[in-house]
Design brief:
Number of strands: 26
Structural class: alpha+beta
CATH topology of the largest domain: Thrombin, subunit H
Distance between the termini: 57 Å
Low-confidence stretches: 84-95, 386-390
Number of helices: 18
Number of domains: 4
């Protein structure tokens, strides 16, 4: 093979030289003709023609030699490819399965790739909703990827992969062989050594047992091999023969390998969602698909941000596709300063404006759109303090009751989470309006069937509730109850997979189109999309401030009565960290006569600043394990 490659290189060099010579000849011929025709007298034309005939004969011979060389090069390239195929296919048909099993191991993507696992959960959430629109016959199922790794024990230990790997035993191998039959794809993470032949053999043998067609491969190499283009070309050729469509290379660095694996898998989700989005867009005129388009755009936006992480301020991160505004959107945008709220009830548009003249203008402009327009000075909201488990997203009530009474009590709110102050006090946060009718300021929760008083609200006498972020309360856990909390209560926040997860207060601002989650005492874990963000005064609040509007689904609203005080969070964009970024707190919902009205929230960082302002010596508040 080495000799063949050397001959091919020499031949290609000769081919390039001949090609260059032909070009020079053609150029010289053209220039000679021009020069001769413009400079020679008529009597010399005959001699010129003789020279041209001679030149043409030389050129024909040269072009014939050029064509022969070109044909020879093509034959050599074809022979080289056939030699590779023959070398692989001439391996014995009977392969020792035990040896093959020892070469490969299966990776647990949930443990190793937290960001991809989360994005796959978003995909599942979206597809559950869109199934109401697309029938099973129309719905193209997403093909997940199984991850197989080929590396030695030293590499496993150096990259700290032990806990994420499972031995490929005979049972697992037999199960893996069915992946291809079930149209499930495979991502191979292959640590390349210096033996090219053995690398090709290992991949080809796997392909005989598990279909690698349309799958992906990530070659992990040392820096020397990574800079060897010839070696990489050989690896690419092997993958091509096995019909692997996605080939990547990375150096031996745990962080970079995880990032690359995550990126490979997330690209598959993006392509799939783009396909579904295109399908939904075609249905816009005939079906009510606006809610599904809002959701798919939110997930695609999140995946675009993940692709650009950590440089979220880059130009690429800002080039997230925004849906073209409809004619109705453009009309509403012209009056956005005078519109307090707008939302849909099926095909009917519901709008609240501040002035009669705006109402008249909108009625004229929206004559072809079913609409209801009301005039109000201020947007009214319905606060959501009205069953759960301790303590993140837990129900709490205001009086000591029996277990049965506690469960039946409809006057409750949600504990956002346990936190700690700078003096190591254990506290909980919630919405302040939840305590307005509670004279004792006490908070009772249910722990293992027993109603327990955990503590009481810390007074904020100077807090006049002038803006929405003032609607936050802190409950100090009584000292004698701390051992009970330490033993019985989960202090960390619970993520989408029901796992206790580290959290932090995010300094970022939510943006329109962001996908978010909350865990509340009434509705549990829900997912929503940020529909709008405005600086305004709403409800009882006198001063304007940042108000976040979040929409859920009609069959599963983002929040309901009893969810006040729930924390709104996003999963970290880091490929390696499984951290929840807390961004907002649920306050209420818009008080309008339409199904599934938007939920009102305020930035959690601003709520914390309210607590620092009115309660002494607690700054900074932190989540446990942060």
């Amino acid at each position: 093979m080495v000799k063949e490659r050397e001959e091919l290189i020499l031949l290609e060099g000769e081919y390039a030289a001949i090609k260059k010579k032909v070009k020079r000849k053609k150029k010289k011929k053209k220039m000679d003709i021009i020069r001769e025709l413009t400079e020679l007298p008529d009597e010399n034309i005959v001699a010129l023609k003789k020279d041209m005939v001679k030149e043409r004969e030389e050129l024909i011979l040269l072009e014939g030699e050029y064509a022969a060389i070109e044909k020879k090069v093509k034959q050599k390239k074809k022979k080289k490819k056939m030699d590779i195929i023959r070398e692989l296919t001439e391996l014995p048909d009977e392969i020792d399965e035990k040896e093959l099993i020892q070469w490969y191991q299966v990776l647990d993507q949930t443990k190793l790739l937290p960001r991809y696992s989360y994005h796959k959960s978003l995909l599942n959430w979206f597809t559950e909703g869109v199934m109401d629109i697309l029938s099973p016959q129309e719905f193209k199922k997403f093909k997940d990827c199984h991850i197989i790794i080929k590396c030695d024990e030293k590499q496993i230990n150096e990259l700290c992969l032990t806990s994420e790997m499972e031995e490929m035993d005979a049972k697992a191998f037999s199960s893996a062989a069915a992946w291809g039959n079930n149209r499930e794809d495979v991502l191979i993470v292959f640590f390349v050594n210096n033996d090219s032949k053995r690398t090709s053999k290992a991949i080809e043998l796997l392909n005989r047992h598990i279909s690698l067609k349309d799958g992906a491969i990530l070659y992990v190499m040392n820096n020397k091999n990574l800079n060897n283009e010839q070696r990489k070309s050989e690896m690419f050729e092997t993958a091509k023969i096995c019909e692997i469509t996605d080939v990547s290379f990375e150096e031996e660095c745990r962080s970079k390998i995880i990032t690359q694996m995550t990126s490979i898998l997330e690209k598959r989700i993006v392509h799939y969602l783009q396909y579904i989005k295109d399908d939904l867009t075609k249905r816009l005129r005939t079906q009510a698909v606006n809610a599904s388009l809002l959701e798919v755009n939110a997930v695609l936006k999140r995946l675009k941000q993940a692709e650009c992480y950590p440089d979220l301020d880059s130009e690429d991160a800002k080039l997230i596709e925004i849906e073209k505004e409809t004619e109705v959107d453009e009309i509403l945008k012209r009056f956005e300063d005078k519109i307090l709220y707008h939302g849909y009830n099926d095909d009917r548009l519901y709008i609240i404006v501040t002035e009669e003249s705006v109402k008249e203008n909108l009625e004229n402009l929206l004559e072809n759109q079913q609409s209801v327009i009301e005039i109000k000075e201020k947007l009214e909201i319905c606060e959501l303090a009205k069953v759960g488990v301790p303590l993140h997203g837990a129900k709490f009530v205001y009086k000591n009751e029996t277990k049965e009474e506690f469960i039946a009590d409809l006057s409750f709110a949600t504990t956002g989470s346990l936190m700690r102050t700078n003096k190591n006090q254990t506290v909980a946060v919630t919405a302040r309006h939840a305590f307005e009718k509670n004279i004792s300021n006490a908070m009772y929760v249910l722990i293992e069937g027993n109603v327990v008083r955990l503590g009481g609200q810390v007074e904020q006498p100077q807090n006049k509730m002038e803006c929405i972020e003032d609607d936050i309360a802190m409950i100090e856990i009584e000292e004698e109850k701390r051992p009970l909390v330490d033993e019985k209560c989960e202090k960390s926040l619970i993520d989408f997979a029901e796992l206790a997860t580290c959290a932090r207060i995010s300094e970022r601002n939510l943006e329109k189109g962001d996908i978010v989650h909350k865990r509340g005492a009434k509705t549990g874990l829900t997912t929503g999309v940020v529909k709008d963000i405005k600086i305004q005064a709403v409800g009882r609040f006198r001063k304007p401030s940042r108000v976040i509007y979040i929409t859920g689904r009609e069959n599963k609203p983002f929040a309901e009565g009893g969810d006040s005080g729930s924390l709104v969070y996003q999963q970290s964009l880091s490929p390696e960290e499984n951290i929840l970024e807390v961004l907002a707190l649920v306050q209420g919902r818009v008080n309008v006569p339409i199904p599934n009205p938007d939920i009102i929230c305020f930035p959690f960082k601003e709520g914390c600043r309210t607590l620092y302002k009115y309660i002494e010596e607690i700054e900074p508040l932190k989540f446990f394990d942060s």
